[in-house]
Amino acid sequence: xxxxxxxxxxLGRRWVLACIDGGSRHGRGAAIxxxxxxxxxxxxxxxxxxxxxxxxxxxxHKWAAVVGLEIxxxxxxxxxxxxxxxxxxxxxxxxxxxxxxxxxxxxxPVLNRRCVEAAVMTGLALSCxxxxxxxxxxxxYFYADLPAxxxxxxxxxxxxVNGSLAYSVCAGKKPSQVITKTVRIKQIQLxxxxxxxxxxxxxxxxxxxxxxxxxxxxxxANISVHHPGEPLGVRTEVKNLNSARFLAKAIDSExxxxxxxxxxxxxxxxxTRSFDYKLGCTMPMRDKEGKQDYRFMPEPNLPPxxxxxxxxLPPGADPQQVINIDWIRERLPELPSETREKLVQQYGMLPExxxxxxxEVGLLEFFQNVIKETRAEPKKVTxxxxxxxxxxxxxxxxxxxxxxxxxxxxAELLSLLDRKAISSSAAKQVFEELWRSKGKTPSQIVSEKxxxxxxxxxxxxRVCHAVMEGHPQVVxxxxxxxxxxxxxxxxxxxxxxxSRADPTVIKEILEKKLSS
Amino acid sequence: MLKGYVPPYNAxxxxxxxxxxxxxxxxxxxxxxxxxxxxxxxxxxPVKNPWxxxxxxxxxxxxxxxxxxxxxxxxxxxxxxxGSAAAVAAFTCFAALGSDTGGSTRNPAAHCGVVGxxxxxxxxxxxxxxxxxxxxxxxxxxxxCVDDAAxxxxxxxxxxxxxxxxxxxxxxxxTLPTLTDxxxxxxxxxxxxxxxxxxxxxxxxxxxxxxxxESEGAKxxxxxxPHTSYSIVCYHVLCTSEVASNMARFDGLEYxxxxxxxxxxxxxxxxxxxxxxxxxxxxxxLSGNFFLLKENYENYFIKAQKVRRLIANDFVNVxxxxxxxxxxxxxxxxxxxxxxxxxxxxxxxxxxDDIFTQAVNMAGLPAVSVPVALSNQGxxxxxQFIGRAFRDQQLLTIAKWFEKQVQFPVIQLQELMDDCxxxxxxEKLGSVSLKQ
Lengths: 516, 436
Fold this sequence. Notes:
The complex is a heterodimer of chains A (516) and B (436). Chain A is an alpha+beta fold and 516 residues long.
């Protein structure tokens, strides 16, 4: 059936809540750093009590929020989890449906090897324990996008459990105040995806597409609040959140709502809610009974999934028929934490920079390509890539691969800067021009706009001299010990050179002259 | 529910037969969704046992009071694969496929005087078999003699990548050896199968069969399957639970019958399922969902699985003690008239009639019903052999020996043939013997 999905279980986000009165906002946990790979995980959730909030206006007890995430992620594979049909993004509706997907009677699920490998890889990457034996279950409910009336999943004994993920959080306003936090991964399970429903209100019908290659990340958040020391509160589930930003907003607003309800003597219903993006708050989703009994039952058509490692591999086993965890572990690509560590070691960059480089799709590659082609210092490259380049991208809401500036161009620009052929401010101008107009190289722009730094030191000395002569008062100020006055002089010299002189060099010359 | 549904693919077992040149003559009648032990609850009506029209039966009935119409008191075939058994018994085909979840192939085989074979679970692919209880279903084989069953099994058995519950070991077609010496065999007679409801006739034939083995030098011993008395209830819980799950896909949306209501999806589902399923099916779905509820799961479903394990272990223990096959009745009595059968409801009947057959499904073992002799009423009686898992060949070999010993008579439909001779123009069909 369905597109194959992985589910992760994330435990216990830590929230620090600010005062509830007057709508001041919460201290924000950083968005979980979703890596840029095409694989995404799905988590089911367990909850853990958290650090407390500050007092509310009424002088009430403190509140703690408990958040768990269920992340649904589609495995990148050629065919679906249990049927042989293909997986293609954006195929015409119902064009990739096998007999099994349509739940024709007599069809049976057959497990896709690639999906199991993907699950094992994900489990290893998230430091989980891989269960050498895992089981499949049926989860029953009636809905038009679920042709069999049940979903095959791994509720009782999933393929991987007890992992963790480290991520960075901004603890304060300064970028350097970054701390590393860990979230627990309760479990990872393989499961079928349901079809896609499109509700046509006009004609009162619902259209079902059983292809199920959504290609999208889906997150459900489970949220509850309680007073520290007391039992956990009733939780609500906020479903189908599609972006990290809305996820954070939804959680925030739900926590607020729950606290508000409880403080006004009302109760929280164990219900499913959805997030209204326009209103910025959660709304109840299903108006029926609170709880659904899914009548879990073992899937009788799939025997227990047995995985092996090198030690337990039966002799003479057919490699086509068995999966060796150790083999997969050896073939894991470099994990982000390792990459970040390498960046810090190799380039001496700050940890928060390494996070930033990995958090944007394609940015690391861009950075590395620039480094390759320039002699500029890595720190300079880092700074330019993360501040200026990324800034421009974000401003225009572009992805790295949509950037009008190529790594080669930036590398060339930074080389010019490094050679002191241009000044820092000139470089920024060039960059702007590069962004706007395609096809021109930095060197071309520099010569077009005559942004070259003055290389002639003697000429520069003459200008400095002239400025000093022209502004005796300022010179006096400097000699009297006014440190800021020198900047004025530098500014004047720069103006006189049409910004074509390196301020650092100017300063050197002036200081030399002033001290003589 | 499946009215008008034409499957767009062949079941593996069907495809295998077609690949070997078999000709599909038609599809046979059954109890709806294989739920029943009489083949009386199908949408096309009940199945009539060909033996109702046999000379052997009619002769005996001449002693009965007159005033009855000839055809009014016809007999059931047993079920649920009664149509297949009837087809084979009436010489309309070489072999027929059925399903066996609790005895649905063996039961009608016994009532119709044919061989009904249930292979080991995992030997024959279930891809294309509409599931009743996935963990117990197998395709069943109905033929007129054991050699024919072995022939069909040789074609059907083997791993199917489309069915993950089939075993990987390769299987080759085989010919059954002709056993002459049974002195090395050990036949087990489970004492718990001596049920009070067992008819004296069947009991007598069971005894005679045991004596036959003993007189030919085999070791015949009484054995115990202590958890037998729990098997009906256990089966009921597990069966209805799986049924509730397997029937969830019949909602009228993708295929099959769909009701006219289109107010909402739920209303459509409800009406479709009410219209499309008979009472028996609906009853089992409701029971099954009850057992699967969170609050009941542990007490019913899990408990039943544990009891199932005990039942399966009973068999393992017996076979480990040196027994080669078990010999038991297949049914409580010979076939009853339809009018009598329907006096009790389906569930009661199933519970009664499955008594000797369903524990075998829970243990996944191979079993075969072989026709033995005619009852006082001139109707077939069959006995069951149960073998070790995946020793289907051995089981059939012993069954073949037994079949040769008992020389079960051929059904004599001569009169019926004569009545329709202008249609059939076949002579002496009734004198075709079992052996070549």
